Amino acid sequence: MPRYSLKYAVVLLVLLASVAVGAYGFSTLELPPMNSGTRTILLSVTSLAVLTVFTRRTPFTLCLGLLACLSVVFAQVWPMMVVALFGLSATVLGRRMLKQHSKADWSVHLLVGAGTLGSLAGLAAYLPINYPGLYGALLSLPMLLGHKHLVAVGRELLGHIQATRSAQTPFQTGLDLLICSFACLYVLVAFMPEVGHDALAMHLFVPSHMAQRHQWSFDASTYVWAVMPMLADWIYSIVYLLAGETASRLTNSSFTLLLAWQIHNMTLWAGGSATSARWASLIFLSTPLAFAESSSLHIESAWTAFMMAGTLAILKVSSFTPEPGERLSQLLLAGLLLGFAMATKAVTLSVLPVLLVVLLLQYKAWAVQGIARTLLLGSAGLILAGATPYVSAGYLTGNPVFPFFNAIFHSPLWPNVNFEPPATFGRGITWDTLYRMVFKSPEFIEGRVGAAGFQWLLLPTAAVAVLLSGNRKALCILLVGAGAMFMTFHSTAYLRYVFPSFALFSVILALPFSDHTIYPRSLAIVAGVLLILTNTCFIHAATYYGEIKPSALLSQAGREAYLLERLPIRRMVDTVNTLNTGDQPVAVFASPLMAGLHGDALYASWYNLKWKGEFDAAASSSELAQRLRARRVNWLVIDLKSLPPARLDRLLDVSTSYARLGDLDLRKLNVAHYEHLLNPELSSLEGWSLTSPSSYDPSRRILTVNVRTPATQRVEVTPGLNYTNSVSARCATTATTGRIQANWMDAQGDFIAASIETFDCTKQWETHEMNVVAPANATAVIIYASGHTDTPLEFKSLSFRQ
């Protein structure tokens, strides 16, 4: 076909329109200053280029050597070894599981093994058995049982290391250098301390909780996200228990790099050349959102890796795969991988209908002998791999997708309304969505302009080129990427939720590099170079966490100083752990960044609606103190600038400051005269249980009771502590005897013993006290407002103080 054909003219016309739109958008931008990310890329590519010139090794081999040296310099050898051990163990396990049923790449073996190991860790999380020894044995077992597969994987790895550049063109080597420089950036940022919001609130909180308590609580009343799909968090927990925070962050970055390899393979499968496959990986790695996913401990990289592998398996269940038996194998594999994706993130449920449509459109290719058995096994794999978190959530909360769609499921742990995402990000797709994603990125993510990457400006041109090329494989990839984006944006237009579309569209953007009849090579190279440059300049646009600071990498003191300056609450967590020796719950009136806390964090936010309601309802300092003590809270972390004055004053009134970091104040709940009873002054009957015909006069705030009709209140106690039980009472009619009574109960609610003292009443109000010690096995006490005879008494206040 002639170069200057109608197809070429159409592509050129769309490209010119995109350039015009992009030029207008760029005129509104300010070029960001040089940052640590771009400096790291420049330094890495320079170092690797020099090494490449003086050796015959590939840039990838040299990159591995450079990263090994950096891990030694920055004292991160053990985390690197643990992550490598996890990857090797997962690959061997996946290879053993799949055997000869699927002609899969090593990355598929790794994902199958990683998903299986993570699923086992998720099941173990229900029991207090999660210790480093367990996971050391878990990672060693596949290599011991599958030593033949281990040898095969070792040979393949050795072959890659010993490879030379003889089969590569200089241009391909240049692309490899750039890819490796981004890999260095992603690994170095993983060496940095964690300062991300989502990570410290959830994705690092879960592994640290597992390390401290050796199990996960699955308590949705304390953490609203406690029963959500968390396969990636279970994977992070495995390496966290063996090598700590850095190992978890390295695992996350490794998934991002694995995605680059998957994009490379999908490009080759779709008919791309070796050069265009490199372009696809480079476009993806240079995207600011891809860097954002590695700059903090997110789960989208792991989720997208499962989605990409499952999507490619679905696409191979078609006439694109000549062998019918292999199509059926791919169908089985797709069920397992998409099940792992479901167990990682519930957004998968929005994408599955798109993949189902693609599968149905290809029904003639897979409707062959043996399909019934394959569909049954594939469905079983999907359910076994993906349904566990939904079944668990349904059992524990009454809502399998808690807290979403609670207007349908009516879980008592959440209001009967549907959980809504932030309105900031909007919904749906409009004619200018691509433009707004690039130049108005804050409407789609917590980032700055350019967060989505500038490749979206070229996507219309690439899509038209693919459509005109007649490449059916590419058309299917385009359909899945666009369909996933449409379905997800229908619920919420949030960029992290369409990360799989970013990966798929990287393939679409690179494929025209292979078809010079529609997309001239020189024009493709210019467009590619400009795209990589602009993405690199804006590499930090999608994150506030990706800074690389050498002092924080070189020493523990530098690391602590960085955290003290960058995120003091992380240092505050260490202080709390030192003082909170009983690992009791800590009330947090600050940002929920409490990963590493030894004990539960009580957040007065939507994370914990029940506790928020209790805190908001406390109308006085004494009532607030009572509610805190009922929750067994001794320590409070308060952001002095985040609370309304009235609520802050009450918190300050019931506590004493022990440590201060900027606006963060660590305070201890006052012990002296602490009141355990709710409504001790009888301002209302909340907390009290009355026995008919005892009476309560709300105007005078007086209880009238006798020995047969007492009023009672149950409160929590700590065994061995001293308490003072006092009452203010008088005779209601004639002189009689009153009673101070406390019945002690154990954890099962069984009666232990009663502490009773009597007193003679008069016509005047008098206060009577009884000092008691909670028995060793007591967890609660029932306080009585009672007479000692049938003659009534009046009570105007009761107290049970520690």
TrEMBL record:
<keyword id="KW-0812">Transmembrane</keyword>
<feature type="transmembrane region" description="Helical">
    <location>
        <begin position="449"/>
        <end position="468"/>
    </location>
</feature>
<feature type="transmembrane region" description="Helical">
    <location>
        <begin position="255"/>
        <end position="271"/>
    </location>
</feature>
<protein>
    <submittedName>
        <fullName>Phospholipid carrier-dependent glycosyltransferase</fullName>
    </submittedName>
</protein>
<feature type="domain" description="ArnT-like N-terminal">
    <location>
        <begin position="244"/>
        <end position="375"/>
    </location>
</feature>
<feature type="transmembrane region" description="Helical">
    <location>
        <begin position="174"/>
        <end position="192"/>
    </location>
</feature>
<dbReference type="Pfam" id="PF02366">
    <property type="entry name" value="PMT"/>
</dbReference>
<keyword id="KW-0472">Membrane</keyword>
<feature type="transmembrane region" description="Helical">
    <location>
        <begin position="106"/>
        <end position="127"/>
    </location>
</feature>
<feature type="transmembrane region" description="Helical">
    <location>
        <begin position="375"/>
        <end position="396"/>
    </location>
</feature>
<feature type="transmembrane region" description="Helical">
    <location>
        <begin position="64"/>
        <end position="94"/>
    </location>
</feature>
<feature type="transmembrane region" description="Helical">
    <location>
        <begin position="223"/>
        <end position="243"/>
    </location>
</feature>
<keyword id="KW-1133">Transmembrane helix</keyword>
<feature type="transmembrane region" description="Helical">
    <location>
        <begin position="133"/>
        <end position="153"/>
    </location>
</feature>
<keyword id="KW-0808">Transferase</keyword>
<keyword id="KW-0328">Glycosyltransferase</keyword>
<feature type="transmembrane region" description="Helical">
    <location>
        <begin position="525"/>
        <end position="546"/>
    </location>
</feature>
<feature type="transmembrane region" description="Helical">
    <location>
        <begin position="475"/>
        <end position="491"/>
    </location>
</feature>
<dbReference type="InterPro" id="IPR003342">
    <property type="entry name" value="ArnT-like_N"/>
</dbReference>
<feature type="transmembrane region" description="Helical">
    <location>
        <begin position="332"/>
        <end position="363"/>
    </location>
</feature>
